[in-house]
Design a protein that fits this description.
The structure is a single chain. The chain is α/β, with parallel strands linked by helices. Helices cover about 45% and strands about 15% of the residues. It is elongated, with a radius of gyration of 20 Å. A three-stranded parallel sheet has the order 1-2-3. About 15% of the residues are buried. It has two domains: about 80 residues, 3-Layer(aba) Sandwich (Rossmann fold); about 30 residues.
Length: about 110
């Protein structure tokens, strides 16, 4: 995946040695190959992520970050579950209910 995120390897190089990286975003914003290289070299001290490219791939156990995390303690990967929080669910349900209410009002207004 090297080179897919322009400037990512350079951004890692500008970080202080031993820096800690937390990535909870969506999508491929980091170059995962450069990321692993920096973890191996210990330029990045530790990292915690909850998103990886191809997270729905059925052969996820062979993903480079999963393989690395299985053998090293300086990378923690958790499921991308930010939307499971009570507040996020409440917002989603409230939004869905409001959309449904508006739709039903439009249908009733047309009759």
């Amino acid at each position: 995946m090297k080179g897919k995120v322009p400037g990512c390897a350079e951004a890692f190089a500008r970080m202080k040695t031993g820096a800690i990286l937390i990535n909870t975003s969506r999508g491929a914003i980091i170059d995962e190959e450069a990321f692993v290289d920096d973890l191996v070299s210990v330029h990045l001290g530790e990292a915690g992520i909850d998103i990886i490219v191809g997270e729905w791939d059925p052969d996820l156990k062979n993903h480079p970050l999963i393989r690395y995390a299985n053998g090293h303690e300086n990378l923690v990967i958790s499921p991308h579950i930010g939307g499971v929080a009570y507040e996020a669910q409440k917002m989603a349900y409230t939004h869905a209910a409001e959309e449904l209410r508006q739709y039903l009002e439009e249908i009733n207004a047309e009759e």
